[in-house]
Structure prediction request, 296 residues.
Amino acid sequence: MECVYLKWCLLYLTALVAVTSGGKMKIVEEPNTFGLNNQLVSQISRLQAKISPSPVSGPPHLHRLAGKCYNYIEAAYKYVFCPFHNVTQHEQSFRWNAYSGILGIWQEWEIQNNTFTGMWMREGDSCGNKNRQTKVLLVCGNSSKLASVSEPQTCVYSLMFETPLVCHSHSLLVYPVLSEVLQKEWDEIAQARYEDLITEQGYNKLLKELFEEAGLLRKAQQPKAEKSTTSLTHQSLEQCTQDFEKQRAEIERLQSLLTQHNISYQTTTGRTRDQGPSPVQDQHLHGDTGFIADLH
Ligand SMILES: *[C@@H]1O[C@H](CO)[C@@H](O)[C@H](O)[C@H]1NC(C)=O
Ligand SMILES: *[C@@H]1O[C@H](CO)[C@@H](O)[C@H](O)[C@H]1NC(C)=O
Ligand SMILES: *[C@@H]1O[C@H](CO)[C@@H](O)[C@H](O)[C@H]1NC(C)=O
Ligand SMILES: *[C@@H]1O[C@H](CO)[C@@H](O)[C@H](O)[C@H]1NC(C)=O
Prediction:
């Protein structure tokens, strides 16, 4: 066969390769003038993210990972993790309708024991009545790479990302990442917890709010009004009064704590002292776990 046009020559060569290598997928790597790759490219560019990613946050030495992407191929799928941006999955097939999907968009950190342990990528492609989401665990390794992928729950994926950037024992601590103001707040909350002026639950709640303030966790957008009406379920007036007394004691305890630490707070529910439990006040008291402090 004579090669007249370059394109035909390439096709001819490709056919040869396909025949001699037993039709293996090697051709995939060839230039996409053959139209084979176009399918894959269009699959990827067709992905529509539901939300935009959160800003880059957390340990500054990890920020250099932003804009990079890491692949992991398992069986028929390729997984792509782009830190601080997204996780996607691509079926390695040339079917016209090969699956490509978003497994999550960068949202917030997973923080455990005051340590960054993973990155939550949420609001991926829908999966039944939920959206796919992925937790990327950060573990120490010789080089930066995706080390494994699993799906512990349907449409909840778990990726393990190895990187030398997290090998130092202090590399993932949350405290050093915070502003001076927030560090001071944390000190105060910790002191209050140490003196047993707040419960473990209260401490964790304040800490969560502090992390939200720092932009490390997404602020929970809860429709307040709805929440308080649905939680207004008292079996009896007696139960209601008991609850109210408990909440009032808790509020007084917290108020004295705040005063002691010279932290200003809103006194919108301060009048409850001399009054019985009116429905309006009760909504206030029941909607949350008794925190009325404005620590910011
Ligand atoms: C995923 O992140 C990469 C890297 O930042 C970006 O180029 C790509 O467009 C993103 N894809 C989607 C579907 O958001
Ligand atoms: C929490 O972290 C501290 C040090 O940062 C460590 O000593 C302790 O063992 C950790 N606790 C748990 C339950 O992981
Ligand atoms: C990491 O690198 C060290 C030293 O180069 C080597 O001894 C070790 O086997 C490597 N570990 C892995 C998991 O590759
Ligand atoms: C307490 O706060 C007030 C202002 O709210 C300030 O004038 C005062 O110096 C503070 N006291 C201490 C001990 O921090």
Observations:
- The two ends are 79 Å apart (CA to CA).
- The helical segments are 6-20, 36-45, 180-194, 200-213, 224-230, 237-260, 279-287.
